[in-house]
Amino acid sequence: MFNHEKLRCYGMALDVAKSAPALTTSWPTGTHYLVDQLQRAVASIVLNIAEGNAKRSLKDRARFFAIARASAAESAACIDVATALRLIGEREEFYFKDRLLQIVKMLYKLK
């Protein structure tokens, strides 16, 4: 097992990334730009946590964890747009934004 797989925030980010395709499958054809943006943003959280955790330098680790936090914010903004366009309901919005906020809070604690 890799060290990043032991991180709770990594597991939670991976769960969010796995849930994103099911959320977007029913979205209409004209929203491919948003589907792509959301899927890339949630994948970026996972990838940057893994890469940051592999860095030896605290400065490098912090940089990758900051990028992961920014990708979480981007993901939340995608959810906001989807909600505004009535592509998702309150339940889905709450699920994703709650998980993303938890991930961000955990990332702030990592060094």
**Number of extended strands:** 0
Helix content: over 70%
If helices are DSSP runs of H or I spanning 4 or more residues, what is the number of helices? Answer: 4
Based on the coordinates given, report the CATH architecture. Up-down Bundle
Radius of gyration: 14 Å
Unreliable parts: none
User: According to CATH, what is the class?
Assistant: Mainly Alpha
Name of the CATH homologous superfamily: 23S rRNA-intervening sequence
Give the CATH topology.
Answer: de novo design (two linked rop proteins)
Measured by DSSP, the beta-strand proportion falls in: under 5%
Task: Give the tally of structural domains.
Answer: 1
Based on the model shown, name its key terms.
111 residues; mainly alpha; de novo design (two linked rop proteins); 77% helix
